[in-house]
Every structure is written in C-alpha cells, then in structure tokens.
Design goal:
It is a single chain. By secondary structure, the protein is of the alpha+beta class. The protein has 2 domains: 162 residues, 3-Layer(aba) Sandwich (Beta-lactamase); 134 residues, 3-Layer(aba) Sandwich (Beta-lactamase), CATH 3.40.710.10. The chain has a 5-stranded antiparallel beta sheet with strand order 2-1-8-7-6, with helices on both faces. A hairpin with a 4-residue loop joins β1 and β2. α5 packs across α9. The longest helix has 16 residues. Bound molecules: glutamine. The site of glutamine has 11 residues, from loops. Pfam families: Glutaminase (PF04960). Keywords: Acetylation, Hydrolase.
C-alpha cells in the first residue's frame, strides 16, 4: 500500500474543498486561526511516519486532551473513576448541561466537557493546579517522545476569560459532590489541558500507545491492554459528541475531536492518525478532518470493522 500517495491525494482534495466549516468563535483566540489549513500525520505500527499538508503546524488540541486526561485519571484511581463519570454517549452537544440534573451530577462520559472537568478534579488530587497541569504535559511529552510540547498560554487565558458555560457545569457538579476540589482550581486545570498545543505529527506520535495495545513503542507499558481497549471503545462511542454515531458510520475508527479542529484516530495494530483543519461542522467537529479520515479509511481499508 502506498500511504504517501494516499496522503498526497487527500491533501490535494482537502486543499480544494469548497466547504471548510467555520472556526470556533466562542474562544476568541481560536477565532483568529486561518481556516485554509489542513494537516495529516500517520504513524504505522512498525514505526514509520507519513505526513502531508500542515502536519508540522501547532494547533490547540482542545478536547483531544480528554484522552490523555482520562488515561492519567484511570492510572490514579482505576475503576473507581466510573462512580463519578459514566460511559454512555450523551446525544448532546459537548458543553451541554441538560443531563446533569436528571443524572445527579454524574456526567454521561469522560469526553464531554462535564466529564473532562471530573477528570481534571481527579488529576488534581494531592496537587496544586500548576503541578497537575505540569504532570499532564509531561505525560503527553512521554507519550509523543517529544519534549517540545507545551501549553499555549494565550489560549488558556482566552478560555478562562470566556468559560462561563464550563463554570456553570463545574459549580453544578460541585453541588452534587461530584467534584472534590474548588471549581476554580479544577477549571484552571481543565482550561490548561485544553490549551496544549501540538502538531499533527506530535499528536499521531502521542496516540501510538493506543495503536499498540497500551505499549510504549520505545519500551514498557503505558497502560494494560484491557485499558487501551476501553479507552478506544469510549473514543468510538463518545469521541465526537452528538456526532459519534455518524463518525463511526463514516470512518469506522475510534477517534477524538477537539474544537481546535484536530482529530486523533486510532486503528489498533495498524495506525495512529492525526488530522487537523480548523473549520468545524455544526457538531463542533473538524469538517475536513472527518472527511479526510473517511477518504483514508476507504483508501486503506483501515477500520475496526474490517474483516
Ligand atoms: N476547551 C473547550 C471547551 O471547554 C473544549 C471543547 C472541545 O474541544 N469540544 O469548551
């Protein structure tokens, strides 16, 4: 299979695509990003890397950070996490509050904002926010084998200034006892996690452990294989919010999107893939990122459902 040629075709199609979606405006610093960009990076199980388009350009990973926060939180408290956050698709927008009251302050899954705020609370235990954020960034650097990964402080500040919806979610959950720390401390940790900046190449590298059943490609284990499978299951069922079913239908890979326009997709045993294009569709997922993965799945046959 000629992966370089497949990537070249995809990049060409995405460069000319008429409908690129619209960049997220509710976080002011994301509203300034040029929507004409598109990048893709693929790391295969044998360690080869293929890139195309703007694969080296850093972008705000936003909700893709929820995959890394979840991995860290499971490492800290294991299955006790599931008493504080559910494992069902929400069928609602990423920042929705509607289910929280009926479900007594327990978010539907770790990949909607409310769920990831719980992850931030778990990862904060025993730490100051600065230390918890430092631990997450170190963890992502280790996963990606890249010490150049850092937080974009401008994005973090922009989120703090405009994050009233997330504040509402956190305070509401605090009233039910789901959060153990002060909401402002938890939110500071959450906003910074969303503001990690990575390129497609770095993101595809960071996803390698999920492609490899939990093993780090440079030796040792990040998580047991059962945990890697479970994280991938949640990515498939909940990774694209209210459009998770559509993404599974079109692409057939576990994937996690972010409002920065990135998507991390994983084909177990085969590939870790990152795509990025800042324009979003109505569900808050990258318009061209989803289309590019659909094309890639068609051209390669990569899908968790392929025989
Ligand atoms: N930081 C964003 C928010 O809290 C993350 C949302 C996303 O990427 N879907 O709203």
């Amino acid at each position: 299979m000629d992966i370089s040629a497949i990537i070249a075709n995809i990049v060409e199609e995405m460069r000319a695509a008429p409908d690129r979606g619209t960049v997220a405006r509710y976080i002011p610093s994301l509203a300034e990003i040029d929507p004409a960009q598109f990048g893709i990076a693929i790391v295969t199980a044998d360690g080869e890397t293929f890139t195309g388009g703007d694969a080296e350009t850093g972008f705000s990973i936003q909700s893709i950070s929820k995959v890394f926060s979840l991995t860290l939180a499971l490492g800290k408290i294991g299955d006790r996490l599931w008493s504080r956050v559910g494992r069902e698709p929400s069928g609602n927008a990423f920042n929705s509050i509607v289910q929280l009251e009926a479900e007594k302050g327990i978010p539907r899954n770790p990949f909607i904002n409310a769920g990831a705020i719980v992850l931030a609370d778990v990862n904060l235990a025993g730490y100051r926010p600065r230390e918890a954020i430092g631990e997450l960034v170190q963890f992502v650097r280790y996963l990606a084998s890249d010490d150049g990964i850092a937080i974009d402080e401008t994005v973090a500040r922009s989120e703090e200034e405009t994050g009233e919806r997330n504040r509402a979610l956190a305070h509401f959950m605090k009233s039910y006892g789901t959060l153990h720390h002060a909401p402002e401390m938890v939110l500071g940790t959450y906003f910074h996690a969303c503001s990690i900046e990575m390129s497609c190449r770095q993101l595809a590298q960071a996803g390698r452990f999920l492609m490899l059943g939990g093993r780090h490609p440079e030796g040792g284990r990040v998580v047991p294989d059962r945990r890697a499978r479970r994280i991938l299951s949640l990515m498939l069922t909940c990774g694209h919010y209210d459009a998770s079913g559509d993404f599974a239908f079109r692409v057939g890979m576990p994937g996690k999107s972010g409002v920065g326009g990135g998507i991390l997709a994983v084909v177990p045993g085969k590939a870790s893939i990152a795509v990025w294009s800042p324009g979003l569709n109505a569900s808050g997922n990258s318009q061209l990122g989803g289309l590019a993965l659909e094309r890639l799945a068609e051209a390669t046959g990569w899908s968790v459902f392929s025989a």
